[in-house]
Amino acid sequence: MSQQRVLPQSKETLLQSFNKRLKDDIKSIMDNFTEIIKTAKIEEETQVSRATQGEQDNYEMHVRAANIVRAGESLMKLVSDLKQFLILNDFPSVNEAINQRSQQLHGLQEECDKKLIALRDEISIDLYELEEEYYSSRYK
């Protein structure tokens, strides 16, 4: 996995769009949070009354908070899209996992075969001894 794989153009474009979405959403969160902090400062004297300014600031904070939530939801969707992309397009990892599991199961099969052969040999010896005992017995 340490080697760099060459991706087809469509996959490269998709990854670039994921990167752009990530940067845009993070920037949106940071900008809106910064503006909320700026809005929280009390201005000295303005041309509008304090109550009006307070309502306007309250409304702006609600809008900016909604923008932060929207950007967060977009980031969650991006994570989901990245997981789907990885699952659908990471064939070397899937093949490696399949090969490892296959080797694991072959080892388990060989171990079971050895145990079954040992069990068969023990049963065969016991059966031979029982047959000898039976045929040499006077109760047959």
From TrEMBL:
Subcellular location: Nucleus
Broad class of where this protein is predominantly found: nucleus
Assigned keywords, A-Z: Nucleus, Transcription, Transcription regulation
Tree of life domain: Eukaryota
Pfam families the UniProt entry points to: Med22
Function, as annotated: Component of the Mediator complex, a coactivator involved in the regulated transcription of nearly all RNA polymerase II-dependent genes. Mediator functions as a bridge to convey information from gene-specific regulatory proteins to the basal RNA polymerase II transcription machinery. Mediator is recruited to promoters by direct interactions with regulatory proteins and serves as a scaffold for the assembly of a functional preinitiation complex with RNA polymerase II and the general transcription factors.
UniProt protein name: Mediator of RNA polymerase II transcription subunit 22
